[in-house]
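Form 7-S
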Amino acid sequence: MSYRNVSAQARTGGSTVVRTLMALAATAMLVVIAPQGSMAQPKPKPAPKAAAPAPAPAPAPAQQQAPQQPQAELQLIYGPWVKFCGADPGDQKRICATVKDGREESGRLAIAVAIFEKDGDPHKLLRLTMPYGVVLQPGTRLIIDQDAPQTAPYVTCLPPETQQGGCIADYEATPELIAKLKKGQRIVAQAIHANSGPMSPVLDLKDFAKVYDGPPTDPKQIAETQTKLRDELQKRADEARKKLEGQQPATGAAAR
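Output:
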C-alpha cells in the first residue's frame, strides 16, 4: 500500500471515535521511569562560532554531541499498553486502538504509538505521535528491535495545549508488522526537534501482545494509573524544587 493510501485511511480514522480514543488513551499512564535512547540519525550542523579559523576544528566533536546530551538525561514517564474500543458513528462497526505513550515530567508528550483497527476492515494503521515542534521535512523513522528502519512523513500536527498534542505520522500496520510488535522487545522512534535536535524515544513492547489480543482495558485500571501519575509528577516537582533551593545558597556564596 502506498503512503497516499495510508494517509487516506488516516483521514478516515480521524473520525470522532478515533480522536476520542486517542484523547482517552493519552490519560492512561502508568508511572514507569526509564532513560531515553540516543539518536542514530545524522545530526544537524552546529551553529558557527566566532573563534579563529585554526582552533575551530578542535571543538567540533563536542558541538556534534551537544544536542544529544539533554536527550540522554531526559527521563520519561511511561503509560502501560491500553486498549480502547468504540462504535464508528457512520456504520456502528467497532474501532479499537491499542496505545502506549511516554511523557516528560512536565506532562508534555514525548512519544505515543497507537494501533487502529476496525471490524471488517483488513487495513490497520500504526499512528506515531512525536512532540510538537519537530522539524517536519525529515519525517520520522520507526525501528522495531534490530529491524531495518521504516519511514513515514508527518500527516498533521495538533496544538501542544491539547493533552494529545503533537505531530502525527502514519504507518501501514501490516500483518507482518503486527507480528513483529507481538514478538519484539522495543520500538525506537526517531525525529529531529527544532529546539533539542535529534531525538529517539523508546517504548517497550512488554504486554503489547496480551493487550492487543485481549479485551478493552478496565476503566478502574485507568483511574488507578491517573492517580499514580499525579503522585509521581508531584514528587518529581518537589524534588526539582528542593534541588534548586539547595543550589541557590552555594551560587550566592560563590558570587560573593
